[in-house]
Design brief:
Number of helices: 12
Shape: globular
CATH topology of the largest domain: Spore Coat Polysaccharide Biosynthesis Protein SpsA, Chain A
Order of helices and strands: EHEHEHEEHEHHEHHEHHHH
Strand order of the largest sheet: 3-2-1-4-7-6-8-5
Strand content: 15-25%
Distance between the termini: 67 Å
Structural class: alpha/beta
CATH class of the largest domain: Alpha Beta
Number of strands: 8
Length: 310
């Protein structure tokens, strides 16, 4: 069957949240839904098997090894046949506008359509700020479209919130890295770099949730090093293509090392960055600028509070 849209959902041990996710997807003949399970435990798999009978129009794929979200998305890409690809995490869900979006863009010829998002606590359904960086880009778009477009291409590192033409992905062989964290960064900046025709839609397509136990909240030495490697690699790719951009998230690792007195780990991370053309002196110089900006921002907030009191 020829699909207009393929939705790829990586899943690992959260079947109850996956149920919420797939319940937000309209059942239409032109939509292919691929749930790629990343070798969940037996209890979770049993629940997925139950869901297969409840949602016969959804394709469930079971990985025999736990390889992470990047590998799961790559598996989904290998099986997708839709004109457009749409990613969503199993603990998130689509807002109701998804129906109008599908209708509006089924005949589009854009390489990428970027959407805004909202974020909530997964249990309390109260507002969070997990996607505030995305919201700021869309606010910027109202004032300075060119600057915002640059950020959408290179700072909007998440795969969700984007309709991406599948032929475009295949043409440039764009895939996810299979790292523990930030496995979506390479896919996003390469798509941003190669995209010739893009569109911006101000609607919040996804509801992004925050919850304890998610991959993004886990910290370890190898994850610190992976973050540096991913963003240093991004810097190298863009620099080689005459685009000067260094994602500030690389400095989260160095902040953490400083705060926790991890001198050896900090030096190991500097060595990794140097392999991709980022010297220790350059990183330290940029880091000082960021710290100064933070202090100025904090000072402005304090002054603003004092003025309100006065």
């Amino acid at each position: 069957m020829q699909y207009n849209f393929s939705i790829i959902i990586p899943h690992y041990n959260i079947p109850q949240l996956l149920m919420r996710c797939i319940s937000s997807i309209p059942q239409q003949n032109d939509i292919q839904v691929l749930v790629v399970d990343d070798c969940s435990n037996s209890d979770s798999v049993a629940k997925l098997k139950e869901m297969e009978s409840q949602f016969p129009w959804i394709q469930f794929i079971y990985q025999n090894k736990n390889l992470g979200g990047g590998a799961a998305r790559n598996k989904g890409l290998s099986l997708a046949t839709g004109k457009y690809i749409l990613f969503i995490d199993a603990d998130d869900y689509f807002n109701y506008c998804i129906r109008d979006v599908f209708q509006q863009y089924k005949d589009s010829d854009n390489d990428i359509i970027f959407f805004n998002a909202i974020s909530i606590d997964s249990d309390l359904y109260t507002q969070t700020y997990r996607c505030s960086h995305i919201n700021k880009i869309f606010e910027l778009y109202k004032k300075d479209p060119a600057k915002a477009e640059f950020q959408m291409r290179y700072a909007y590192g998440e795969p969700w919130g984007k309709l991406i033409r599948r032929d475009f992905i295949e043409e440039h062989d764009i895939r996810f890295e299979e790292t523990k964290i930030h496995n979506d960064t390479q896919f996003s900046y390469m798509a941003g770099y190669y995209a010739k025709k893009i569109a911006v839609d101000m609607r919040a397509l996804n509801c992004i949730t925050s919850r304890e136990g998610s991959v993004s909240k886990q910290i370890s030495n190898d994850r610190l090093e992976t973050r540096v490697q991913v963003f240093a690699k991004q810097f190298q790719f863009l620099h080689q293509n005459h685009i000067e951009y260094l994602d500030d998230r690389i400095f989260l690792t160095f902040d953490y090392c400083e705060q926790n007195h991890l001198k050896d780990e900090e030096q190991a991370c500097y060595k990794i960055a140097e392999e991709f053309g980022l010297s220790k002196s350059i990183l330290q110089k940029k880091h000082r600028r960021i710290k100064l900006k933070r202090k100025i921002k904090s000072l402005k907030k304090r002054l603003s509070k004092i003025k309100k009191i006065i």
